[in-house]
Design a protein that fits this description.
heterodimer; A: mainly alpha; MetI-like fold; B: alpha+beta; binds magnesium ion
C-alpha cells in the first residue's frame, strides 16, 4: 500500500514485531538455556539473560557429546546430517532435472507413461512406503550407511514436475538456435538449459536441503550405530533419556546447533531463492 | 558461397496435415530469394526444412551440390534469424555471437577478432557486455543478425526478422539487410508476409499460396505479369482492382454499362475479369471519355499521392484509384475514370489464372 497514514504504519509495525517476537522468543530462551549450567536451571524458571557457560557447553556438546544418553558428539551428528541433506538435495535435483529434460525434449515410446509414473510417486512419500523400503534397504545391506540414509529419499516427483513446467516455458526457438549453432543435446543442456534453470535450482536446493536436514523417521529406522546418527534424531534421544531428567542445557545447545545450517543456507541463498520463486529469467 | 537446390520438396506433419505440396526452386550463388504469402501458407515450414529444423517428407534439398536431407542443422552451415530473435538470455552479446564459433572449435583469438569485426559492422561495439534483456528491440535484432553473420555461413535464412520492430525501424533495417547481404554476397532465403518488404529486398520472389508456389520471378516481373488473381491481389499496395466483364457476341469483352470493347476471347474463359492497378487509372474530363464512373465514398490524402475509394455501376467490389499529388475531390462526387490500356490484366475468375485474350 502506498498510503501514508501514521496510525496504519504503527499498527502494521506492531503486528510484525509481535510476529517476530513469537518466532524469536523461544529461540532466545533456548539460547539462554544453552549458556547455563545444570545448577542454574534447578529453579524451574527459565531465565531471560545468558549465563557464563557458553563456551563450555558448546565445546562439550560438539566434541564429546552428552554422556547421559551416550549420544555421539554433535559435530559427528551434524556431519551426518549435512551429508544426508546435501545428498538428498543434490541427488534430487540432478535426477529430476535430467528426467525432466528427457520428458520435455525427447520423443520416446511411453513418454507420458513414464511421466505419470514419476508423478505418482508424489503420493508415496517415504513414510507411506516405509516397510517395503526398509526391507529393500536391509536386503541390499545398506542399513547404517549414507547410501541407505539418502537414496530412498531422493526419488522425487515434485522437483521433476517443477523442472518440467519450467522447461515448457523455455521458447522452442532457443533450442533451434542452439541446434543451428551446432550444439547437440548435451551441449544444449549444459550451455543453455542449466544456466537458465539457475534460480530454480537454487530455490529447490534450499527447500530440499531443509527437507533432508529435518528427516527424522527414516534415519531413526535405518541407523542403529551411533556413528550414523543425525542431529535431529540426537536431540530427540537426549530428551527421551530413560530413568532420568533430560539435561536441558545440553538439549538446547544441540537444538540450536541443529538449527544453524538450514538457517545459514537460507541466509546465503536468500537472494537467488526469492528470485527463483517469484521470477523467471528468460 | 553456395547454391540451394530444392527439388519436389513436400512436407506432411505428424498429424497428417500437408503443409507443402511440392516446390521446386533453384537459388543462385549470392541471390536473395524472398518467400512471401499469407499467414499459414507454409513459408516458415519451407524455411525450416531448409534449416533442418523440420524433416523433409519427400523430395531433395541440396546445398552447394550436396544433398543435405539427413544432415543436422549444425552440419548444414546455415544461419537463421528468428522472428523473436531467440537470443540466449543468459549470455552476453559477445557470447551470443561467439557460441556458434566455439561449438565449431574456432580459436579464442579468432573468435574475438571475428566478433569485433561484425560488431563494428552492426554498430554493436559498445553493447558486447550486455545481456539481451538490457537491449532495445532494434538492438536485439542487430545481435541476431550479428550471430548469423559472424559464422560466415553458406546460407542465411530469415523468418520474418523485422516483424517485431516498429514501422520506421523496419524500413531502416530492411535497407540495412539488403546492403549487408550485397556486401557479404551470402545466398539468402527470406520469409515475410509483408509485400513491400518482399518487393524491395528480393532478387527473386516466390509467392506462395496454401502450400504451393503460385509464381516465381523477379519482383517487377511479378508486378507487371502476375500469373494469377491471387498473385495480382497480393503483390502491390493498394491491391489490384478486379472488375467483372460482360461477353458480347463474337467473344468481345466490355465493362457493364460501357461501350468500349477492351478485348476479345474465344469463349473458353468461364468468367472473365479485368484487373487494373490503382496507379494505372486516371481521371478524365467527361463521362464520355471514361471507362467507369466512380462514385467516391472515401479519400485518403497521403501527401505525395491521393487514394480515392469508390464504387462503379455494375461492379460489386470497391475500387481504389491512386492519383499523384493532392486533389480537391469530395465524398459523393462522381468521378469519370479512364484506364491505361497498356496495363490491363485479364483473368478467369473460374480458375483464378491469367486469361488468354486478344486486345
Ligand atoms: N507442427 C505442426 N503440426 C501440424 N501442422 C503444422 C505444424 N506447424 C505448422 N503447421 C501448419 O502448417 C501450415 C503452414 O505453417 P507455417 O508456419 O509454415 O505458416 P507460415 O506461412 O509461416 O505462416 P505465418 O505467416 O503465420 O508465419 C499452417 O496451416 C500450420 O497450421
Ligand atoms: Mg511463419
Amino acid at each position: 500500500m502506498v498510503e501514508n497514514r501514521p496510525f496504519l504504519t504503527l499498527l502494521s509495525h506492531l503486528i510484525m514485531i509481535a510476529g517476530v517476537a513469537i518466532v524469536a522468543l523461544p529461540v532466545w530462551i533456548a539460547f539462554v538455556i544453552s549458556t547455563m549450567d545444570a545448577t542454574d536451571l534447578l529453579g524451574g524458571v527459565a531465565p531471560l539473560w545468558p549465563g557464563d557457560q557458553f563456551l563450555e557447553n558448546y565445546a562439550t556438546i560438539l566434541f564429546q557429546g552428552e554422556q547421559a544418553s551416550s549420544a555421539p558428539p554433535v559435530l559427528l551428528m551434524m556431519t551426518n546430517s549435512l551429508i544426508m541433506a546435501l545428498g538428498i538435495a543434490i541427488g534430487k535435483i540432478v535426477i529430476s532435472i535430467i528426467s525432466a529434460y528427457a520428458i520435455v525434449y525427447f520423443r520416446f515410446p511411453f513418454r507420458m507413461f513414464f511421466f505419470w509414473m514419476i508423478f505418482m510417486t508424489l503420493m508415496l512419500p517415504v513414510e507411506v512406503r516405509i516397510m517395503p523400503t526398509f526391507k529393500v534397504i536391509a536386503d541390499l545391506n545398506m542399513l547404517n550407511s549414507y547410501a541407505g540414509l539418502t537414496i530412498p529419499l531422493i526419488a522425487s516427483a515434485t522437483a521433476t514436475f517443477l523442472f518440467r513446467q519450467f522447461f515448457l516455458t523455455v521458447p522452442e526457438e532457443l533450442l533451434e538456435a542452439a541446434r543451428i549453432d551446432g550444439a547437440g543435446p548435451v551441449k544444449f543442456f549444459i550451455d543453455i538449459l542449466l544456466p537458465l534453470s539457475r534460480t530454480n535450482i537454487a530455490a529447490l536446493f534450499v527447500i530440499l536441503f531443509i527437507y533432508g536436514w529435518n528427516q527424522y523417521l527414516w534415519p531413526l529406522i535405518v541407523t542403529t550405530e551411533d556413528s550414523y546418527y543425525t542431529v535431529v534424531m540426537g536431540v530427540q534421544r537426549m530428551v527421551a533419556v530413560p530413568d532420568a531428567d533430560p539435561i536441558w542445557h545440553y538439549v538446547m545447545t544441540t537444538a540450536l546447533l541443529g538449527m544453524l545450517p538450514p538457517a545459514l543456507v537460507v541466509l546465503f541463498m536468500q537472494k537467488l531463492f526469492v528470485k527463483g520463486l517469484v521470477e523467471q529469467e528468460k | 558461397m553456395a547454391t540451394i537446390k530444392i527439388d519436389g520438396l513436400k512436407k506432411r506433419y505428424a498429424n497428417g496435415f500437408e503443409a507443402i505440396h511440392g516446390i521446386d526452386l533453384d537459388v543462385a550463388d549470392g541471390e536473395l530469394v524472398v518467400i512471401v504469402g499469407p499467414s499459414g501458407c507454409g513459408k516458415s515450414t519451407l524455411l525450416r526444412m531448409v534449416a533442418g529444423l523440420e524433416t523433409i517428407t519427400e523430395g531433395t534439398l541440396s546445398i552447394d551440390g550436396t544433398v543435405v536431407n539427413d544432415h543436422e542443422p549444425g552440419q548444414r552451415d546455415i544461419a537463421m534469424v528468428f522472428q523473436n530473435y531467440a537470443l540466449y538470455p543468459h549470455m552476453s552479446v559477445f557470447n551470443n555471437m561467439a557460441y556458434g564459433l566455439r561449438n565449431r572449435g574456432v580459436g579464442r583469438e579468432e573468435i574475438k577478432r571475428k566478433v569485433a569485426d561484425v560488431a563494428a559492422i552492426l554498430e554493436l561495439g559498445d553493447l558486447l557486455d550486455r545481456k539481451p534483456a538490457q537491449l532495445s528491440g532494434g538492438q536485439r535484432q542487430r545481435v541476431a543478425m550479428g550471430r548469423a553473420i559472424v559464422r560466415d555461413p553458406k546460407v542465411f535464412l530469415f523468418d520474418e526478422p523485422l516483424s517485431n520492430l516498429d514501422a520506421k525501424l523496419r524500413v531502416q533495417m530492411r535497407i540495412e539487410i539488403k546492403r549487408l547481404q550485397r556486401r557479404l554476397g551470402t545466398t539468402s532465403l527470406y520469409v515475410t508476409h509483408d509485400q513491400v518488404e518482399a518487393m524491395t529486398l528480393a532478387d527473386r520472389l516466390v509467392v506462395m499460396n496454401a502450400g504451393r508456389p503460385e509464381q516465381i520471378g523477379t519482383p517487377m516481373d511479378i508486378y507487371t505479369n502476375p500469373a494469377s488473381m491471387f498473385v495480382a491481389g497480393f503483390i502491390g499496395s493498394p491491391a489490384m482492382n478486379f472488375l467483372a466483364l460482360e461477353r458480347m457476341e463474337g467473344g468481345r469483352l466490355r465493362l457493364p454499362g460501357s461501350e468500349a470493347m477492351l478485348a476479345e476471347d474465344d469463349g473458353s474463359n468461364g468468367a472473365p475479369v479485368l484487373g487494373i492497378r490503382p496507379e494505372h487509372m486516371r481521371t478524365v474530363g467527361t463521362a464520355a471519355d471514361a471507362d467507369i464512373v466512380l462514385s467516391v465514398d472515401a479519400i485518403e490524402p497521403l501527401g505525395a499521392d491521393t487514394l480515392v475509394y469508390g464504387r462503379a455501376l455494375g461492379q460489386e467490389g470497391e475500387i481504389v484509384l491512386r492519383l499523384g499529388g493532392s486533389h480537391s475531390i469530395g465524398e459523393g462526387d462522381n468521378l469519370p475514370v479512364a484506364f491505361d490500356r497498356n496495363h490491363l490484366h485479364f483473368f478467369d475468375r473460374a480458375n483464378g489464372r491469367r486469361a488468354d485474350v486478344r486486345t
